[in-house]
Every structure is written in C-alpha cells, then in structure tokens.
Amino acid sequence: MIDWIQKNKVGITVLGLIALTTFLLVFSLSQQNQLTTRPDGVPLRKGPSRTAKELTTLKSGTKLTVLERKNGWWRVRDSKNDNEGWVASWLANNTWLKKPTALSEATIVLDPGHGGSDTGAMAYNKKKYEKTYTLQTAKQTEKVLTQAGARVFLTRDKDVIVPLLHIPRTAEKYQADAQISFHFDSSDSHNSASGISQFYYNDNSLPLAQALNKSLDNLPLENRGYESIPYLVIKDVSRPAVLLELGFINSDKDLSYITSESYQKKAAMDIKVGLDQYLENN
C-alpha cells in the first residue's frame, strides 16, 4: 500500500488539490447566498422598496438566506422565525450604523452639474469654473449621506461631461428616492445678484423641494426660494428630483462661500437634514 501511494504520489496530490478547490468553491457559493444583519431593527418589507409595507424588523445577527436580488434589495428568508421578505442590502450589511433610519434605507443620486469641456458658469476673473465646485459639493454631500447609511450614486465622480439625457438614468435604474443636481448661478453682470434657489418640475418633486428649501435656510446666503422650471435633468425623470443653485459664481460675496470647504460641508449637512425630513414625511 505504501509503495502504491509513493508511486502515485503526484496523482494523489492533484486529486487532493481538486477536491479542496471544489470544496472551497462550493463553500464560497453557499456563503454568497447567506446574509447576517448588522444593525438592530433592519426592516423586512413586502417589496423591494423603502415604501413597501414593513412586515417585521430583524434583530442584529439574524441569519438570512438570500433568494433574489433586485436593484440592491434582497429577498431573504429567516428560517428560524419563518419570515420572508425584502431588505436593503446596504443597510443590512452596514457595519457602523446601530439602528436604521428612513435615510439609511434610501437611495440618493447626486448630480454634479457640468464637467469636462462643459465648464458651466465662470467667476468674474474667468479662472474659476462652476463644474469644479459642483463636484466638490456633491462629494461632500456623498460623504455625509454615506456616513448616515444611505446608498449614494454620483452621475460623475471626476471632471468628465455627462450628456443631459443620461443624467436621469441612474435614478431610474436604481429607483432612487431622490435625485439632487448641484449648480451655481450666474447673473448678467458682476455682483448684480446673490443667493441660493431650488427648482423642481414634476409634482412628486415638490415635497422634496420644500424640505430642502427649509433646511437650506441655514446657509449664510439669502434663500431666494423654490420654483417649478422644466430643466431637462429634473423634467425627464419619474423619481423625485430637485436642482439646487447654491450661489452666484460671478458674485464676489457668493464666490467666497462657494469655494470654501466649510460652506460645502454645511450645504451637505443641510441637505441631509432636508432629506431626513422629506423621507420621514413621504
């Protein structure tokens, strides 16, 4: 027997490696269909949406079997308690959030206006471009919302141009709870206007515009209010969508804020407050 093993040592080794690889592959595939909840109180819903009926809440450490995946929502079964429904996968897997909130179940799309060869509006000295600060502000907002547990997508994360008709596609694809476009205004002449504004178009976007209007009152620039205007990025989308003008880039006063990291962070925090209110009430 020992002689046979020695003579076939290479073949036995190969067979052993194949068996081990097969075992690891099967184990890995089985783990992909398993989920253990992290926060306490993850909602189990009837459908793949934060607005679907809540069936129950799941304790931290609940072991689930994944049955189906759809736009980041997973249909799962809790065999121990004989429950089946949908959970927001990014929430169930969150490692720092203790308890869910309306925002932590939400999907938010942030759209930094312009980019690439489309500079947007320019400062009076022609050296500072709107596209630069829309991206900076959107990234600050992404950071704040992600820390709060939300799932966040940017229509661009670098200096590239995104065709206007493509912008709503992300919100539609992931059935976003809100799409927010970032812009900075420009007046006909230097220092002739100042302040921030909010724009919406479709009726389902009005509550979002109103919530952001209220929360952005905390910014140091005058809030000029909200208005319905058929801008393409907020018109051709079925999801709630708002376009924010967070200052006039050709106003020296506004520009000093627009280029300030502290202003961008404050805008991000105020947007989070507005989204919290909107999601709680809608």
Average pLDDT number: 91
Shape: elongated
The CATH class assignment of the largest domain is Alpha Beta
The biggest beta sheet, please? 6 strands, mixed
Structural class: alpha/beta
* CATH topology title of the largest domain: Aminopeptidase
Query: Rg, please?
Result: 25 Å
**How do the helices and strands follow one another from N- to C-terminus?**
HHEEEEEEHEHEHEEHEHEHH
Q: Give the tally of structural domains.
A: 3
End-to-end Cα distance, whole Å, is: 74 Å
Describe what you observe in this structure.
The chain is an alpha/beta fold. The protein has three domains: 31 residues; 59 residues, SH3 type barrels (Roll), CATH 2.30.30; 179 residues, 3-Layer(aba) Sandwich (Aminopeptidase), CATH 3.40.630.40. It is built from nine helices and twelve strands. The strands form three sheets. It has a six-stranded mixed beta sheet with strand order 8-7-9-12-10-11, with helices on both faces. A hairpin with a 2-residue loop joins strand 4 and strand 5. Helix 4 crosses helix 9. The longest helix is centred in the first third of the chain and has 24 residues. About 5% of the residues have low confidence. Pfam families: Amidase_3, SH3_3. It comes from Fructobacillus broussonetiae. Keywords: Cell wall biogenesis/degradation, Hydrolase, Membrane, Transmembrane, Transmembrane helix. This is N-acetylmuramoyl-L-alanine amidase.
